[in-house]
Amino acid sequence: MFDTRELGRRPGAMKRLSREVESPGDLGVEFIKVPDGATIELDLRLESVMEGVLVTGTARAPVTGECVRCLEPLDQRVEADFQEMFSYPEADDRGRPVAEPGEDEEDEDTLFLEGDLFDLEPVLRDAVVLALPLQPVCRVDCPGLCPDCGARLADDPEHAHEDAVDIRWAALQDLAGTMKDGEKDNEPRTDGDDSQEK
């Protein structure tokens, strides 16, 4: 929870702060995540406006996971920018026109101050998860793994196999080989016969 009392509900008042918070856990996608309990660095700017407090910030956190190409462990950092309005609770009740149909859906997404406090966790969670790469790689040009034997190609750039035949096509390859042999057997002989006739 963050306190906004210093702003005093004076539109135009602003406060900057930096803080380190512990990861709330479960911040991640399939191949990469912020470790549970990791330290997230926050740089925030709180601005008082008529409707509430506008929070603009940047979050920086360590992330761990594995490369989607070679499956090697990853240790990187992610940076996420966010901006969110936290409305005063009474702004929901006073000085507001009657809601039009469909406006209720927008109300569900509105975040409110609790007294003079606001909870940044849902905003932080959305911002960090959206900033994570869906397909993290250990390096941009990671060649991945050999599709035949699973060897890591970055360790052996010259790694190669003889052309492997898909087992589903092996019978056809045998048939093609048999047909070529048969054609050779049926070819007319031209080993010097013409020279004898002359």
Automatic annotation (TrEMBL):
Protein name per Swiss-Prot or TrEMBL: DUF177 domain-containing protein
Pfam families: YceD (PF02620)
TM ranges: none
Region feature (Disordered): 1-21, 176-198
Record-linked InterPro entries: YceD
Biased composition (Basic and acidic residues): 180-198
